[in-house]
Design goal:
Strand content: under 5%
Shape: rod-shaped
Structural class: mainly alpha
Radius of gyration: 42 Å
Number of helices: 3
Number of strands: 0
Largest sheet: none
Order of helices and strands: HHH
Helix content: over 70%
Length: about 180
């Protein structure tokens, strides 16, 4: 015969373990979501740093080109010299746009991952509670089933055990002891 109290305690401990596992999983997912959001922020910051460096490089290259043209006797600001400087500036602006686009794209992707992990954390908690409730219902059904089995076994044992009735006289006492 199984003890219903010990079965209930074991089921309760299993349920608590299930909920605690879900809480731990949710906590880990929330930490990962925070890390993803911070990485998104850093990605955007690094993109702006790259933009500043590209602008600095473009100004340096344009200055070098202007200095080289001036030293060789070209008239600055006219003709092919102006076209070359303008073309370099346009290429740098396109490069800057690409840098910003890529940084923004990567940051958006990281933020989406963070949001997904936050949703997964909520789902882990809900799933853990539902699993614990399912385990509790299953354990209650098992305890009830075991109680019916124990009761049936008790009835079978009682049916096989000879009964003596007190207060009744035995056959010998009624017949006079013959």
């Amino acid at each position: 015969m199984a003890d219903p109290v010990s079965m209930g305690v074991a089921a309760g401990l299993q349920m608590v373990g299930t909920v605690m596992g879900a809480v731990d999983q949710a906590s880990a997912l929330r930490r990962q979501a925070r890390a993803d959001r911070e990485n998104a922020r850093r990605t955007e910051l690094q993109g702006e740093i790259d933009v500043l460096q590209t602008r600095r490089d473009e100004r340096g290259a344009s200055g070098d080109a202007i200095a080289a043209m001036a030293s060789s006797g070209f008239a600055l600001g006219t003709g092919s010299a102006a076209d070359l400087i303008r073309q370099n500036a346009i290429e740098r602006e396109v490069e800057i746009g690409n840098i910003r686009y890529e940084a923004n794209h990567d940051a958006t992707s990281l933020r989406q991952q963070a949001a997904d992990k936050k949703r997964a954390a909520r789902s882990a908690i809900i799933g853990g509670v539902l699993n614990a409730a399912s385990q509790g219902a299953s354990a209650a059904a098992g305890i009830q089933r075991q109680g019916r089995i124990d009761a049936q076994n008790g009835l079978e044992i009682d049916a096989r055990t000879p009964r003596t009735r007190t207060g009744l006289r035995s056959y010998n006492s009624l017949s006079g002891g013959y």
